[in-house]
Design a protein that fits this description.
Structural class: mainly beta
Radius of gyration: 21 Å
Order of helices and strands: HEEEEEEEEEEEEEEEEEHEEEEEEEEE
Number of strands: 26
Number of helices: 2
Largest sheet: 11 strands, mixed
Shape: globular
């Protein structure tokens, strides 16, 4: 019995040590670098990266963060509509990192110059989703291979012509080498138990926010964005720009730009929060057979993801509880 107890203690110690191992820094160069205006079709031609564009990523497990560092702030050249420009990152900026590979860097001060007109633009870079004009664009969380894609949204009129007529989408992709051990980072929030009906006449979706650690202040800290992909193709991109607000002590609501509404009912104790979304219609719903739907929800600073098989029939997709 004594030997069994010692073996259990030894195993427990090994497991604890396995999640207390310092994470080695990575190197990363943004080999995907896009500046576009999806609503107008304007697109910049960005120069290929050089060795000066390389970044170092330093991880801190205790704070669940990743810091991007450069030796010097090196401007990246581009041209848009024949006009030269440059974009530069600060020497260092920090991002939160979850065990699901989601990165979020708030207020990254980008130095952008177009046609000799300079601007310092604070941008939130995320692997989740951002609103871009009338649409929603998604990034890609870091995978086990270290590959990820960040997206950011620059408001209309912030940059100089010819990139000021609409919202600008910044899309950045790179490969963190070596990839970090994501299991050591903070647990991510999931959007589970997805159910509902998606059709051209209405959209109703409900689910639960499980895991992670967040407070009401986190959920209400900014806009709400929901994206649904069916078979990899977007079918829902809903924005609730004013974010969630308290309707009562345990109920939060958000109104969408197209007449939709989101309701979050906070759980008691360890009970998960419940999410309900009403949409006026889902144009891309339908088809036939079973299709995998991936949901990404950003509420303030909280990112939650979920996957569910839906059955499509006669232009309507359903997922039962």
């Amino acid at each position: 019995m004594r030997s069994v107890a010692i073996a259990c203690l030894t195993l427990g110690a090994r497991l604890a040590l396995a999640h207390d191992i310092p994470v080695s820094p990575s190197t990363c160069t943004f080999d995907t670098f896009e500046l576009t205006e999806p609503d107008t079709g304007v697109s910049a031609n960005v120069s290929p990266p050089t060795s000066a564009d390389a970044m170092r990523i330093v991880y801190t497990v205790a704070t669940a963060t990743a810091q991007f560092q450069q030796v010097a702030s090196t401007p990246r050249a581009f041209t848009v509509g024949g006009t030269p420009g440059t974009i530069a990152f600060p020497v260092a900026f920090g991002a939160t990192l979850t065990a699901a590979g989601d990165l979020r860097a708030d207020g990254v001060a980008l130095g952008v110059m177009i046609g000799g007109v300079a601007a310092t633009v604070p941008v939130t870079l995320t692997t989740a989703v951002v609103a871009v004009g009338d649409s929603v664009a998604g990034g890609l969380p870091m995978g086990t291979d270290g590959r990820f894609v960040l997206v950011g949204s620059i408001p209309r009129g912030t940059l100089a012509p010819p990139m000021n007529a609409s919202t600008t989408l910044l899309r950045l992709g790179c490969h963190a080498d070596p990839p970090p051990d994501l299991d050591q980072f903070a647990a991510a929030t999931s959007l589970s138990a997805l159910a509902g009906v998606l059709s051209p006449s209405k959209g109703k979706l409900r689910g639960k926010l499980n895991g992670g650690t967040f407070a009401i202040a986190d959920l209400t800290a900014g806009p709400v964005i929901l994206q649904l992909l069916a078979g990899g193709a977007p079918i829902v991109g809903a924005e609730f720009p004013a974010g969630l607000r308290a309707q009562s002590a345990r109920v939060l609501i958000a109104d969408g730009t197209n007449g939709g509404r989101m309701t979050v009912r906070l759980g008691r104790g360890r009970q998960p929060a419940r999410v309900a979304v009403d949409l006026p219609g889902v144009t891309g719903a339908g088809g036939s057979g079973r299709v995998e739907v991936q949901a990404t929800l950003v509420a303030g600073t909280v990112t939650a993801r979920g996957v569910r098989q839906l059955t499509a029939r006669r232009r309507t997709s359903r997922a039962a509880s």
